Amino acid sequence: MNVSIDPSWKTQLQPEFEKPYFKQLVQFVRQEYSQHTCYPKGKDIFSAFDHCPFYETKVVIIGQDPYHGPNQANGLCFSVKDGIPHPPSLVNIFKEIKVDVGTAYPKSGNLERWADQGVLLLNATLTVRAHQAGSHQNKGWEQFTDGVIQLLSSELEGLVFLLWGGFAKKKSGLIDTSKHHILTSGHPSPLSANRGLWFGNQHFSKTNALLGQKGRPLIRW
């Protein structure tokens, strides 16, 4: 299984990689990928980190699980590969962006363009077995990604964390609010959005306003 991770992250996360739980996790993931169809592709597991080097991180969006359908997951939360139909949550994200900041609804659902600007699109669980949502939960990924959030919180300043839905909101305890900003809302999934918990949150303009106050480059959503 070919896995790559940006050198800046590799340095920061080396202590985590050496912990017993992570070695067990690697063993589990290797076994799963050798015996079953799993997503994303091995080379894309750490794609969120590859596109967004540690010291360039400005915004963190937290998802839960990779998509478990063919050719969807590309290692970035909420993102799909070029040419793949947009899942319902992503449709609602793009609709909110159009109203909030006036960006036209995009053809591609590939969010690498955000990641390359410093948006860390972090799923709590980085792998999944095909057609089995949540199949790689509670195997160690959550401990790893919680460690990532704590690392960002302690080592960097002025990040904007976007926590959408109950699962993501539980991560707020890992974040030092004296140094960082947290914006919360309902999840962009139709279930939540149709109950009025997503649309109108203006998280994209609010994020840029917070970055602008720090003199940091704005995100082109």
Topology (SSEs and partners):
Blueprint: H1 7-17, H2 20-35, E1 38-39, H3 47-51, E2 59-63, H4 88-101, H5 112-115, E3 119-123, E4 128-129, H6 141-155, E5 160-164, H7 165-169, E6 181-185, H8 190-193, H9 203-213
Pfam family, one: UDG
GO cellular component, one term: cytoplasm
Subcellular location: Cytoplasm
Walkthrough of the structure:
- With 221 residues, this protein is an alpha/beta fold.
- It has one domain: Uracil-DNA Glycosylase, subunit E, CATH 3.40.470.10.
- 38% of the residues lie in helices and 11% in strands.
- The chain is built from nine helices and six strands, in the order H-H-E-H-E-H-H-E-E-H-E-H-E-H-H.
- It has helices spanning 7-17, 20-35, 47-51, 88-101, 112-115, 141-155, 165-169, 190-193, 203-213; strands at 38-39, 59-63, 119-123, 128-129, 160-164, 181-185.
- Strands 3-2-5-6 form a four-stranded parallel sheet. Strands 1-4 form a two-stranded antiparallel sheet.
- The protein is globular and about 45 Å long.
- The mean pLDDT is 96.
- Excises uracil residues from the DNA which can arise as a result of misincorporation of dUMP residues by DNA polymerase or due to deamination of cytosine.
- Residues 50-211 form the Uracil-DNA glycosylase-like domain.
